[in-house]
Amino acid sequence: MTVRGLGGAAGAFAVFAFAPAAATATAPPLPAAVGRVTVLQSSSASPRARRCLRRLREELTAGGFEVTVNEFGAGGEALWMVEPPSPRDGSIATLTLVGNPDEANAELWIVDGVPGGRVVVRRLLIPAGAETHEDEVLAVRTLEFLRASAFELAGRAPAAPATPAAPSGPAPSTPPVTVASKPPPPPVASLAPPPTGPVSFELGLGLIESSRALGPAFLPVARLRAEWLSLLETRVTVAGFGTQAEVTTPKGTATVGQMVGLVDLRMAFRHGHDLRPAIGVGGGVLRVNVEGAGTEPYQGLHGLRWVGLLDVGAGFTARLFRRLSVALEAHGQLAAPYPTVRFSGEDVARIGRPALFSSLTLVTPL
Questions:
Q1: Are 218 and 311 in contact (CB under 8 A)?
Q2: Could you give the CA distance from residue 201 to residue 225 in angstroms, rounded to a whole number?
Q3: What pTM did the predictor assign?
């Protein structure tokens, strides 16, 4: 009897001692904050940007994420390449670096999913000229954020329905019931703007002053721009059918009409930025049409000449909206051989020796 009582006490002690362990073993495990992350990187990224993205990949890999790197060409925009994460293939988020931290403040864009099938974009600031310590802080912040997002997605996932226990005895002869499956949600549209081609069209107004004696004239301007590399551009410019300049003397009046056709090669800097300065050189033709009206006893004459034109210019292009920019430029032009306006053998105006041409145009990609 004593031995049995001791055994009962020992059994009770064992129940109390192992009860917490049994409770711990049967508790549901926490969801693992892991998944696939895509990092977009430009082939022309600066050393500072590459160092920041490399540190970020190392931190995410150490944190249990599967990191995939997609590299795109120098002429592409990072935001055009962003695709929303797809839960079907285990994708958690897409990361990309917007801006160049070597020149100015940049941002790390995190495109991730949230409960309900939505997609959000979160941005983390990367200060210009930051050191390695700032890169580590940014990587740790990104890792913590992605872990929280993964836990949130896993916590909102619907639980698997419990399978009812099979009843004892023969199975009933109830016919199976077919339940219609819920249609999948429509795909989420990409947040990035659609890619644009390398060819753009410009339309605007120009101001040309070929001679101090003539004064300025306004000319409509149309251009076709093609980007061959991230730095080089080729343009075709046509300007004409605008106002006409006049010169008046006691012997009569001359009205001068002008048309300009140019082909130039430009260097456009800061590819991918909202403000892009550019310089260029080109050549073309200048068409000069002169209508003279003389006072008695002088008689007016008509003249038309085509001459060669050398052009150098500088300006900038500023982005206004996603598919619309504005360009402001100033050009110096030299005609060879230059036309002249004469009254009774006396030179009154020399055209294109030199000429100043400025333009303001709107630019849209085709």
A1: no
A2: 6
A3: 0.48
